Prior knowledge:
Layout: H1 11-32, H2 39-66, H3 68-74, H4 79-109, H5 112-147, H6 150-162, H7 168-178, H8 183-191, H9 195-218
Amino acid sequence: xxxTTERTDTWDMVLVHRAFRRxxxxxxxxxxxxxDGDTARAEIVGSHLEKVGDALHHHHTGEDEMLWPxxxxxxxxxxxxxxxxxxxxxxxxxxxxxxxxxxxxxxxxARVADRDELxxxxxxxxxxxxxxxxxxxxxxxxxxxxxxxxxEWAALGERGRExxxxxxxxxxxxxxxxxxxxxxxxxxxxxxxxxxxxLIWRLFGDRTYATYRDRLRQG
Length: 219
């Protein structure tokens, strides 16, 4: 077993998890509320669903490639737990793949049958995601704190930031995270961004995110 001399603070992952939980819990109802044939509304909701699904896929891929291999090497007493995390990722990815099949078809024609199957699939994904994130936060992150160095954790976070879209959508993704943050968490997260990104957020972030959020949720 290998442990680090400096304890790693994993607060940022818990914050990101809150945003994923919120959207996957909210999306089944947003999908079901779209009227039969309303392709304009289906496009708004479906486009958001696509973005969230892609973001979760990138988030899990980063863990698959940069976190689980290190923990399997160092936290050998917890091999079964880490294998369980990988298996949970696979189940969630199966649901994301099905969502990715259904979503374009629903966005194109907004048929009731596609809508209902899509909403049911998102709801199942939400349950699986809640289970996984709870296990990760309660059981994995304490192990990460003592087996992954701050530099390795920062590299994982940087990979996540690199996967964010550019321009206006970057502000939307930041706003989605900040909606779940305390003022102290928001200030800390902003402090870790490059100065130009902090300036752009302060100038345009709140307004850009509020416009996007209200269009999605209020119809």
